[in-house]
């Protein structure tokens, strides 16, 4: 004998599953492109703090940064990109750069990175 009450099935359809998997895949590919730039930025932050501690003059600080960049596999910035501002007896080191990640066709993702050794994270402008 058949039951007179029909139970409605619940769940995701095949088309819905494909759509969700496509979205998860796109987010995953984007994350795989962003994570290496974020890791490199963390290496750059460590390198500018080590460079500040490793030198007292602009030339020593830049040479120290170059050594850190070589061992830390830093390719986005060099010692030429560092901004050094005298703050009393020491120098504050700052760096800012952009990273472009191509997406699809003409679309790109632009990431702005900035780091400084100044207290409070606010870099002063260099005196000319």
UniProtKB/TrEMBL annotation:
Q: Which Pfam families match?
A: DUF4845 (PF16137)
| Family annotation (InterPro entries) | DUF4845
Which keywords does this Swiss-Prot/TrEMBL entry list? Membrane, Transmembrane, Transmembrane helix
Spans through the membrane: 12-35
Any idea what this protein is called? DUF4845 domain-containing protein
